[in-house]
Specification:
Layout lengths: L16 H6 L6 E8 L5 E10 L3 E9 L10 E6 H6 L8 E10 L2 E12 L2 E8 L8 E6 L2 E12 L1
Antiparallel strand pairs: 1-2, 1-9, 2-3, 3-4, 5-6, 6-7, 7-8, 8-9
Length: 156
């Protein structure tokens, strides 16, 4: 049986590699709106172009809010364990709480991970019904939001 805990001293991840694999098919596409302090907001679109038992190939592209391409798409390969590992954080720095949030794709029950590193909090909301990347995330430094990433479209 796969574990949610990937290494000693780390908090459990919201999903196992197998849960992420089982929830991911070719064509799955996630569009996120990214807003960073001092920069123009943009859309980040991640589309799964290949999936097998070992992992996935994703195409990631940036677009302006009106849909114009911003640079060339990137192609990334990752194992399912690599994708799980993105949500593995030191337990001493991490709090995990259930929270229901309103999103552009409807209300979702989530696990909110708050990871503290000095004066910076990285906050991730993982929708319990959508194994994989966070549905929403925020970076707060010294009490100020410096980046937010919100899912605006999700196609399985």
């Amino acid at each position: 049986m796969e574990s949610h805990v990937l290494e000693a001293g780390h908090a459990p991840t919201p999903f196992t590699a197998a849960e992420i694999r089982d929830a991911t098919r070719v064509g799955k596409s996630i569009t996120r709106r990214v807003e960073s302090a001092g920069a123009e907001p943009f859309l980040l679109i991640s589309t799964y172009v290949e999936c097998d038992d070992a992992g996935a190939t994703l195409e990631r592209s940036r677009r302006s809010l009106d849909g114009a391409p911003l640079g060339e798409p990137q192609v990334l390969k990752a194992t399912w364990l690599d994708l799980q590992r993105h949500a593995s954080f030191a337990a001493a720095d991490t709090t995990i709480e259930p929270e229901r949030i309103e999103t552009a794709i409807g209300p979702l029950d989530c696990l909110r991970y708050t990871v503290r590193d000095g004066g910076t909090d990285e906050i991730f909301w993982f929708a319990t019904s959508l194994p994989g990347m966070p549905i929403q995330q925020m970076t707060r430094t010294d009490g100020q939001i410096v980046e937010s990433v919100l899912v605006v479209d999700y196609t399985t």
